[in-house]
């Protein structure tokens, strides 16, 4: 995509969605730079263009963004590091060094690398309080006013910012800060429901809802756990994302059991286990069956 066209595209999406330049560019670039980008007088870096479009809920293929040689090399390294982390391999030091050795990094590049490093720290079960501080540090590269425990009032977030915020919530939960974890995750729930396009929500919202359903159950708020699980079940069907579908039904049944409604508990858990088997997730089905049988020994659940 022509470097000048993408600035015009950003401006058109911003105006269409009703955001000011200040709201969109906060923590990414100055308002004057934002104005020059939209008018075609300044070519945005790949990271800047992606971040602005991401906050608008717009995904543009990397091939459509003009990139320098260094940006291409860094993009390739980011893809490789991402695949390593997804596969559970945290041996990313050499790739991170190669990324950093390419030259000075802007705030968004620093944020991405620190995020990668901190995910690996978390996966290696390092000091959770240190991990939390590193996630916060990463988020502050683009949201400098962020403080733990303070009101979350962000209008627009990039994909990376949303991922970091979710990891902050999960780490807070692991540290035993249940109310704070729920507060952050509820903010993300509202954000995904209100601000992003369906393709982004379909990938991320079920995960957010699954966390919340579990955390409300941990808190003992079983009615809220049921409400969130039901919302998650409907979202899975709406988006055609079925990986979490039986887990939401399992959570709902579990919460019914905790509330003493054993009929609904059995109905949901039996259905969830059968669905897992049909989805060729027998090991998960057997694990969930054992947990339910141990928790509710008076109920004769169907053997998977």
Could you give the count of β-strands? 0
Q: What is the number of helical segments per DSSP (H or I, 4+ residues)?
A: 15
Query: Ends: how far apart?
Result: 53 Å
- The amount of beta strand, in percent, is under 5%
Shape: elongated
Contiguous uncertain segments of 5+ residues: none
Mean pLDDT across residues: 92
Run of helices and strands: HHHHHHHHHHHHHHH
Radius of gyration: 22 Å
Biggest β-sheet description: none
Label the structural class.
mainly alpha
Tell me what you see in this structure.
With 304 residues, the protein is mostly helical. It is elongated, with a radius of gyration of 22 Å. Helix 10 (178-194) runs antiparallel to helix 11. Helices cover 70% and strands 0% of the residues.
